[in-house]
Amino acid sequence: MKTIIYTCPYVPAEWIAAHGLRPSRIIPDAAGSTGPVVPIEGVCPYVRGFVNEVITGTQASAVVVTTVCDQMRRAFDIVVRKGKLAAFLMNVPSTWQSVAAQKLYLDELKRLGRFLIGLGGESPSTDALVKIMLEYDTARTSILAARGYLTSRRYSEAIARFNRDGKSGITRDITDKKPLTDGIPLLIIGGPLLREDFEILDVVENSGGRIVLDATETGERGMCAKFDRRRLRDDPLMELANAYFGGIQDAFRRPNSELYNWLKREIAARGARGIVFHRYVWCDIWHAELRRLKDCIDLPVLDIDTAGDNETYKHRTENRIRVFLEMLQ
Amino acid sequence: MICAGIDAGSRAIKIVLMDTDSRQVIAKGLIDQGVEQDKLASELFEALLKHSDINKKDVAKIVATGYGRNAVSIADTTITEITCQAVGVRQLVPKAMTVIDIGGQDSKLVQLDRTGKVRDFAMNDRCAAGTGRFLEVVAERLGIKLESLGDIAAKSKRPAVISSMCVVFAETEIIGLLTSGTPREDIIAGVQAAIAERVVTMAGRNLELPIIFTGGVAMISGMDLALKCALQKSVTVSPAPQMTGALGAAILASSQLNRRRP
Amino acid sequence: MSNTPKQITLQEWDQRYEQLQRAGMHQPDYGGPLGRHVEDGDYRLLKLRYDNSAAALRLWNFLLTEEQRLYQARTRGKKIVGTMKDLGTVPVMAYSLDNLVAFYPDGAWWIPCVMELSAGLLSIADSLGIDESFCPVRAMLGAFVTGAHFPIPDLLTCSVGATCDDFSAIAQRLNSLGYPILWWEIPHRRSPEHNEPAVKLPGGFSAPKCQVEFVKSQLELVKTALEELAGESLDEKKLSAGIQKANQVRAYLAELRQLAFTAKVCPLPALEMLVAEMLAIHFCSDRDETVIVLKELVGEVRSRVKAGKGVLAADAARIFWVNPVADLQVMNLLEDCGGRICGTEYLFSHALDTIPEDLPPTEALARIALADPMVGSSVDRAERICTDIRRFGSEAVLLSRIPGASHCALEGEVITEVVQANVDIPVLEIEVPPVTDSIRPTLRTRLEALVETVIERRKR
After folding, report:
1. Maximum distance among all alpha carbons in chain B?
2. Distance CA B206, CA B119 (A)
3. Does B262 have pLDDT greater than 60?
């Protein structure tokens, strides 16, 4: 089965799977200092890591890139010029309130479908799409149910594994465990995490904290909304578009007020006492939200910025997290 | 009982010995940082004990803080410099609400609540352009002593614009300014303004007064003025600015000890 | 002082001004000596060199009095539209309605340069969490906060989608400070797929029809907002008339570029060419006056070209300039180093293209918006640059990187590769912050080396 890789949460795995292909949402291990994109001032480390992984290290048949950020959009140019994979650039609108924006997203899904068929995929029947959507929905539900039982890192890794491998990646070791209750409840928010950034979650726990909401793009925030089963049977593709385009809140949206509304609801529901804000240097979209987050949300905010140079920032990050938890204690 | 606070900073190691009951400072000392910082810390500690005629056994608790705190083997525990600076500054300036700490390696901004607890903080530990390292670079490049920077900068009528985020590039800019005949007072004033601007970037301007400026850079004249200018708020240099971290560590050591007493 | 074309300093302009006045120079109401603008804090003007023609004086005075013009417009009861991240689309619509004036708040990015940071706009942006890792356009935030550089608009529009992240994030920050924004989406331009209905765009591009339809729907949203603000409808007749006027501006600019970039001796300095080209975006808040200013400038350049006169040496290296510079003085510096501008791509080349007049007007505007170089791929942009390099005979490319700008970091490499592969000329990348004083020696070295390389290549 051909594998289609992507990293953006607005690419529905169900749609790729329904075409008889294997969706795999990848997370680069690290930004890396070698590869087609070397560390250049101004280049987001995540984009660098993604491009380098796509061009040099994958066995996939195709890659799907989206337009949610300017650098990723431009990274597509490099992937096309220097990579060997078939590549597809999907327009994901920044605006979301208009019918036209929603229709654009839906049309892009249909265009993606044509691309997948061109790769050897098959146009899915309604029943096949419904079946796959239900399977994914059930799998997501079981992952969400595991949140209170797994350590922060294991929970976030479970989500990442599901995104990469589909339902075969779902963890099954939660049933006989007791809920975790220790530590100061915190949420982590930001764009996507590199795999090496998952260490941050351990550092938080080792310093006396507990992540009750992984609101990074790689975590829960990057999961689509639960499907409406009735609408799903009436028009599955439309429901897929609604759940992804309408259900995933992100900083790149204009306006992005819904991200804050969502965040406030989740903070209240989960009792978070502080926010760990993770951003990459040169990621303008998230960087610009830092001060606003401090203004809008009445919780202490810890800023963790990284340029992708893990070895040098590790000590710094640990220090910051420790200070933050000292403060909250 | 006696407690000790050791602040292993990037440029110097500072130690404060404190009487746990009276909270009086018995002795304090400072030594330049080096490769063997654990050894240096131990030697300074021993020297202070000897000078104060204190037996090592009488020191009940040692808290290390600062960039190199984990390397101080004589310490019983470690606490971050943010917490220690907050406590140290509050001890010296009881009404302090905001602490700006600029050291050789990083800069920090700590906001306190009415009780003196840390309410929020921000750190610049990624870019040396907002730290004392920047001043060292300019002093080296201009061939003048660090302590003279403020007096020279005071003569500036038009501080130069330093645009780079990075000290390495900023050094090139300084060379460029020198080549183009920019007066050295304007270059120094420009560098001081650039450091102050980075504090604004960290903190915004909504800082509660009084703002207390601490850390080694607070001892360089002119920096408080640069901060005042950038923040558009009054800024007061802390008493003993280099020692506030060690003082806070000693106080926290005493508090921990007192909590454990029956 | 003679009328021979040359570049002069601001001080020399004082004498030149008196000379022109004695000779009976006609001046508009915003005219006057150039030096008076320094009193407003525009210190950078003291360090620039200017063309010595009356037409250039009018151009500069027109540029430097925009703020007053906006306040006067408001006093006269006109409504003001701030068209953000919009390089020449919504202003065409706004100026089609009598009582609207559109301006470009993003233009505040030059204030830190012109005022040599004295306005403190970048510091305000810093304090709002938008630091130097963002493009200098962050100065706009400071300008909104101080309210000192333009009147707060009655309506703010901003295009998003396939635009730069810096500006999108800055505009969102502005929105969060309480400034309502009408966001309109511009999708990433893509090539039509097999069997997909295609539409030709200005600039030699094409796009699928559905993308043009989508942009039309977005412009309809903007149109409705403009109509509500103006209190009058924007029918096709009015919009078509507005497009014709905009095309008049674009026609003058096309002629100016052709003359200036292809003349044997450079007839107009780079700085004045930059200011003139910028008029295409929003007409410096007065569309009709823009036409007059450009007409006069084109007249001056025509006569210089005819007479074989210019402002630079005939053997100056012919440089194609990519991206606008935050510090205007760098344009002078290139000329000091022995270069001249022969071709530009300041990220708004579509605003210099003729808007189709044989199409329904909204469709025509949608097509021009989709031809924006920022909206398409870096390869598209690079290929258009190559086309213009061939047209103008450029001998090297100067890629002027904008500090912090999200698009510059990756597209520079693509443009360099495409240019070298297609036209085989040297490409130099530099970065230009708002005030370059401290990096002038290193910049000079690079520019001189580029010019030397061009001269050496001529000997091949």
Report:
1. 69
2. 14
3. no
Q: Does B123 touch chain A (CB under 8 A)?
A: yes
Q: For the whole model, what pTM was predicted?
A: 0.90
Q: Sorting pLDDT into bands at 50, 70 and 90, what band is A174?
A: low
- The string of pLDDT tens digits covering residues A220-278 is 999 999 999 999 999 999 999 999 999 999 999 999 999 999 999 999 999 999 999 99
The residue count for chain A = 329
Model pLDDT, residue A324: 94
Q: What tokens were used for B99? A: 């602490």
Could you tell me if A39 lies within 8 Å of chain B, comparing CB atoms? no
| Contacts C401 to A, Cβ<8 Å | 42
Domain ranges of chain B: 1-93+242-262, 94-238
The length of chain C is 460
Contact B125 A319 (CB under 8 A): yes
Contact A203/B at CB under 8 A: no
Do domains B1-93+242-262 and B94-238 share one topology? The answer is: yes
Residue partners of C200: CB distance under 8 A and separation at least 6: C206, C367
Nearest by CB: B122 against A303, A322, A326:
A303
CATH classification number, B1-93+242-262, choose in 3.40.640.10, 3.40.225.10, 2.20.25.10, 3.30.420.40? 3.30.420.40
Mean pLDDT score, A106-135: 97
Fold of the B94-238 domain: Nucleotidyltransferase; domain 5 (3.30.420)
| Residues sharing a CB contact under 8 Å with residue B194, sequence separation 6 or more, in sequence order | B129, B130, B134, B162, B170
- pLDDT-based confidence at B134, cuts 50/70/90? confident
Q: How many CA atoms lie within 13 A of A233 on its CB side?
A: 2
3-state secondary structure of C421: helix
| A294 has a pLDDT exceeding 80 | yes
The string over C61-100, giving b where at least 16 C-beta atoms fall within 10 Å of a residue's C-beta and e elsewhere, is bbbbbbeebbebbbeeebbbbbbbbbbbbbbbbbbbbeeb
What phi-psi label fits residue C48: left (phi over 0), alpha (psi between -120 and 50 degrees) or beta? beta
Confidence of residue A329 (pLDDT cuts 50, 70, 90): confident
ipTM of the complex model: 0.95
Residue B204: how many CB atoms within 10 A of its CB? 17
Give pLDDT < 70 ranges for chain C: 1-2
